Amino acid sequence: MRAQFVLSEIGVGLRRNLTMTFAVIVSVALSLALFGGALLMRQQVSAMKDFWYDKVNVTVYLCNKNDAGGGAAGAPATPACAKGAVTAAQKKEIKSDLDELTAIVDKVYFETSDEAYKHYKELYGDSAIASIITPDQMQESYRIKLKDPEKYQVISTAFAGRAGVHSVQDQREELETLFQMMRGMNVAALCVMALMLVIALLLIVNTVRVSAFSRRRETGIMRLVGASSFYIQMPFIMEAAVAGLLGGVVACGLLLMGRYFLIDGGLRLAETMPVVNFIGWDAVVAVLPLVLVIGLLMPSLAALIALRKYLKV
Fold it and tell me: Can you give the pTM of this predicted structure?
């Protein structure tokens, strides 16, 4: 009987404040969807880092005759190559030193100037400058795959500034701009989520306040007949919990639809951007229980705190 009474009171409360309940559901849904989206965005950045950092190389570019000064255009010498183009002995020494770094170096590949020219033509063959570039202007290089990409500084310290070395480049730097942009989007989503969360909490508190005021006669009678504070507060808390849970369900639906629309259907990013390692459905499904739990607990706690002030029992 008590359970039936509590459930009937929940239904009455939701119907009396239908508009505000709907506002609570929408605001909770949007804030939790942004929260879940931020979590998934962080996982996406992590997945992309793991995917790309495993493939990028550290490149040691060697000086050629153009870097040493003169050349076809009579260009001045590059400061790092002022002593001249790399010699066979210097290349052998660099290769030997790289082979000794077995603790951090996985593979070493030597790229000739002809191979560098071929790759350049494949990438930038349609550009105007590609028509005037010649193979002898391309730099030879050692492309190094590290066991731990974070150890780039070891290679840079060991080889930058050495005779015959033009520069040491970490290809991760080319990806950092993308990752920084994605991290910025993640922070923006969290900020909007926090704003929506505050709005949702204010709506919940206001809804509980209005509901408690509209039923002050019933609560007064219950207080007179000896009902406990918890028993009187339970319908109000459950109303907020139901609204929050519905908002969580809507947020889960938004996350599922968002993942499908962006990656599998609609924009079809999985097809148009095959080089990106997108998170799978398992990552999205793993976030949903957390969204539902927060959607259930957050309004309940907000209602409990509000009742201490607006429901004198």
Answer: 0.66
pLDDT digits (tens, 9 = 90+) for 58-112: 889 998 888 766 544 445 657 778 888 888 899 999 999 988 888 888 888 899 9
> pLDDT by residue (tens digit) across 180-208?
777 787 788 788 888 877 888 888 888 77
The pair of structure tokens assigned to 64 is 């050629």
88/109 Cα distance (integer angstroms): 16
Short-list 66, 297, 57, 88, CA closest to 197: 297
Q: How far is it, in rounded angstroms, from Cα 152 to Cα 263?
A: 33
Write down the number of H helices and E strands in the chain.
Answer: 10, 4
Token pair listed for 240? 């907020």
* Contact (Cβ atoms closer than 8 angstroms) between residue 43 and residue 233: no
Residues in a beta bridge with 70: 75
Among the listed residues 108, 70, 67, 99, the one whose alpha carbon sits nearest the alpha carbon of residue 86 = 67
- List residues bridging with 110 in a β-sheet: 142
